[in-house]
Each structure stands twice: as C-alpha cells, then as structure tokens.
C-alpha cells in the first residue's frame, strides 16, 4: 500500500511540476523530505517489529503505523502550504 501511495504521489508531483513556481517547489520539497524521513523511521520500526514477538511486536507495529500516519499528515500539510503559496502568486 505504501508503495502505491508513493508512486501515486510521485506521479502527481511530475504532473504538477510543469506549473509550479520555485517557491511552491521549495515548500513541497521541504514537506516531502520530512515525510520521507518519517517513512524511513516507520520502515525501521517495522523491521524491528519483525525481530520481536507478542506484545512487543504489536507495540512496534503500532508505533510504525503512527509514524506512517504522521508522514501522510505531513504530506497533506505540505499540499496545503503549497496551495497557499500558489494563491499568493
């Protein structure tokens, strides 16, 4: 699922790249970089969960899910910030 969302996001960025200003791209890149870092943390947490069992595994998987949700919220915030920049232009 995460791969599908990433591919969809990349396709959207490519489609919009032609009409974005440098400032919009800067805002978008900042949020996207932060979201990517969060996704990496979630991946690491999931790898850790694979080496655990029982309640510890569930806790690690829940933490990974929470981080993934934060990454998605960051991407959505980035889109809103980018739209705000676009409206100012």
UniProtKB/TrEMBL annotation:
<feature type="compositionally biased region" description="Low complexity">
    <location>
        <begin position="55"/>
        <end position="66"/>
    </location>
</feature>
<keyword id="KW-0732">Signal</keyword>
<protein>
    <recommendedName>
        <fullName>Lipoprotein</fullName>
    </recommendedName>
</protein>
<feature type="region of interest" description="Disordered">
    <location>
        <begin position="51"/>
        <end position="89"/>
    </location>
</feature>
<feature type="compositionally biased region" description="Basic and acidic residues">
    <location>
        <begin position="67"/>
        <end position="89"/>
    </location>
</feature>
<feature type="signal peptide">
    <location>
        <begin position="1"/>
        <end position="17"/>
    </location>
</feature>
């Amino acid at each position: 699922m995460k791969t599908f969302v990433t591919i969809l996001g990349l396709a959207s960025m490519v489609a919009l790249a032609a009409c974005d200003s440098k400032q919009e791209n800067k805002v978008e890149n900042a949020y996207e970089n932060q979201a990517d870092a969060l996704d990496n943390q979630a991946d690491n947490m999931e790898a850790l969960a694979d080496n655990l069992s029982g309640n510890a595994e569930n806790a690690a998987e829940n933490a990974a899910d929470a981080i993934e949700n934060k990454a998605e919220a960051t991407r959505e915030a980035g889109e809103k910030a980018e739209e705000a920049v676009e409206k100012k232009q």
